[in-house]
Design a protein that fits this description.
Blueprint (H helix, E strand, L loop, with lengths): L6 E3 L4 H9 L6 E2 L14 H21 L8 E11 L2 E2 L6 H11 L3 E11 L5 E12 L4 H10 L19 E5 L2 H5 L3 H10 L13
Parallel strand pairs: 1-2, 1-3
Antiparallel strand pairs: 3-4, 3-5, 5-6, 6-7
Length: 207
């Protein structure tokens, strides 16, 4: 689009693309990065989210720097971590892994941390971290087995998607809902606006 700087989303997540679009922003390119997202030994959830969001931004920055069409674009990355206390839950890929997550979340509170990292056209890195408290209902075996059969959990932090069927499991949510989905919209747009990105540019054609 003519008239605004370019924005690269360092993610291939359909959820994050949808959320960015919801804010009236259309990324010029997606540059998902292939980094090791394994938490370090003893790493706390907040620190893990911050480190991974920064690593994704750095990897995307390297890709964008060698692309003449995108060089100098804003780069936005994010990482979401679901944790029970200090324990970080995986982005489940295996059935047993997902079942373990759901049993751990059943009937208790957990926290969702999303770190957002923005690289400015000048190459400066800016970060925000958002935390949301979520409480699940007590899940019985039928709930767990049916949810596992849906396949919705695959690749999701904590093995659930709040914007999907698992929204029926949430008894209480304190904080940003979009954070739980994968990108806190208020903090993300505030970060972009604060660094000079015209977030309202696409609003006239958003509906």
């Amino acid at each position: 689009m003519i008239g605004r700087p370019k924005l690269v989303l360092a993610s291939g997540s359909p959820r994050r693309v949808t959320l960015v679009n919801q804010a009236g922003i259309e990324p010029d390119a997606l540059r998902p990065t292939d980094i090791d997202e394994t938490p370090k030994r003893g790493e706390l959830p907040r620190a893990c989210a911050n480190r991974l969001a920064r690593a994704k931004a750095e990897a995307a920055f390297s890709l964008v720097n060698v692309d003449e069409e995108l060089r100098g674009a804003y780069i936005l990355s994010a990482d979401t971590v679901v944790a029970v206390g200090r324990r970080i839950l995986p982005k489940a890929e295996l059935l047993d892994e997902a079942a373990q997550c759901l049993r751990l979340l059943s009937g208790r509170n957990h926290r969702v941390h999303t770190a957002v990292c923005l690289v400015t056209p000048a190459g400066a890195f800016r970060q925000r971290l958002v935390e949301t408290k979520v409480r699940f209902k007590r899940l019985n075996e039928e709930d767990i087995e049916a949810y596992l059969a849906s396949g919705e959990w695959r690749g999701k932090a904590g093995a659930y998607a709040a914007q999907g069927i698992a929204g029926t499991f949430i008894v209480k949510l304190v904080g940003s809902y979009s954070n739980v989905v994968g990108l806190p919209l208020y903090e993300t747009t505030a970060l972009l606006h604060g660094e000079g990105y015209p977030i309202r540019f696409g609003w006239l054609n958003a509906v």
